[in-house]
Amino acid sequence: MELFRGTAPSPSFLALHRAGLTGGGQELVDFRVPCNPYFPTPAMFAVMAVRLRDILTSYPSSAETITAELADVLGLRPQTMAMGNGSTELITWIDHLLVKESLAVPIPTFGRWTDQPMETGKRVDMFQLPEMSGFALDPNAFVAFVRSRGSRAAVICNPNNPDGGLLSRRAVIGIMDALADLDLIVIDESFLEFADAEAYPSVVDEAVLRPNVIVLRGLGKNFGLHGVRFGYLVAHPALAAQIRSRLPKGNLNSFAEVIVFMLKRYRQEYAESLRMIGRDRQLMTTQLAGLPGVTVYPSQGNFVFVKLPGGTDGSWVRDQLLSQHGVLVRECGNKLGSSSQFMRLVVRSQPDVQRLLTGLSTVLYGTSFYAPRVGWEQPPSLDAGPSGHAGYSDYAGYPGYADGASASGYGVSASAQRQPLDLPYQQPPAELAPAYVAMPPAQPPLYQVPAVLPQPPMVQFQAAAGQGEAAGYDRVRPEETTIEQLPVQGRQPDAGVPEPSPMERTQTMTYDPAEPKAAVPDPAFLGERADDPMGQAPALRRYPRPAAYLQDDSMA
């Protein structure tokens, strides 16, 4: 596993294949890199396969031509956009051109927002998102932090990577208003297409009207085409022109051009792919929360953030999942503000999730008993809730799901409302999983599965009286094994309550130890703004339409 020992987050899929890692003879399943398993469609891949020779042997059109087409798809004006060779190229130029001396950013977050300014000698003021509130960002606390540190630029990832926490559009606008005097505010919306808590969560319409705001998007993340390398930003025309003037000529490739010009034809398929990912995220979150000792945080991205049981070494779990089960996971020990006990798991379809759950159950507890199977119970309905968005309000009411994760919970007081999931384990009915009848013994040898496991008491059913052939059943739950009885990798004998780490003693970190430049009283409560009217808009065109800088209907 030396490939994982480097400074990069993790080796590429191609590097693993070159190294001959096959996961015990199984095809590898990647839960590290955020993807969209339903888009592009097989038909789109077939078109690209037919045209592969032309794509590889031809120069692409100019960046202006490709940007104009994407702007038309999104309903924006090309003057407010800049396209780059992935969002990383745009982050690099934002740092070089617009970040003058210091930048404030909540952590944990996307690593380039902390690493890039450090590489160019800027001061990075890191605001630690508190684990006790589910890594939710409190807007007022962040604004106060920016003022106390004297930061001249600020970045917010919405949804945040790696935890998937989402601020409402109203809260983000409140932050932009409170920090309107900064040199730069960046709202990274790279994963916002996967959010379904609001009809219009983006602040693109505000960015084109403000001289110091940039909204960043990554198309590779939305489509799962990371190898193509294409992203874009939206800003005031003067700000966007400043970025465009410094981007290298020919920075977009032919694959990016072909995909952008296919989007109009496959708009409906893309919208359906987002709905299906939302459905898969619901089910996957609930299944992960059924693993004893595992904490799952509500997410609005195409990934789920989990905390392994206490004392577990995430890098060891990662290596075991790869070598024994052919499952690749993102262990977050090298993310600032996180630790090896956390993992970010990408949302995938159920066959892949079953391999993940079986692997986690086997590695953590020495048995596959805790890997839930599809069909034990129906997932929440995907019918539209009161907010008009499919599935989210129903999910919020699901047993064990935190109330703060509802559509109304992602607001200014999100830190007080967003809590981790902690679902109780439910033993499956016997007729649905007859093979999963082995419970781990109360005190087995550490990390070894006994040759023969004792048969646990099965769930008993009692027919409800007076219902004839359609008799209902009352489930009688037997006594369950407690978490304390389960073997967990790395768990040490009870030695009392450990001393809190430096990370736990404070909620703020800074790259530069210099004293704050100014101490400003806490800002007034960020006022609420009236949100845009609710409505349904096609995917890839989910922006409110302001009075300026967006296309008129006559131009669409």
TrEMBL record:
Low complexity bias spans: 537-550
Domain Aminotransferase class I/classII large stretches: 64-358
Keyword Transferase: yes
Region Disordered, annotated ranges: 489-556
Entry GO MF terms: transaminase activity
Keywords: Aminotransferase, Transferase
InterPro entries xrefs: Aminotransferase_I/II_large, PyrdxlP-dep_Trfase, PyrdxlP-dep_Trfase_major, PyrdxlP-dep_Trfase_small
CDD domains registered for this protein in UniProt: AAT_like (cd00609)
Annotated protein name in UniProt: Aminotransferase class I/II-fold pyridoxal phosphate-dependent enzyme
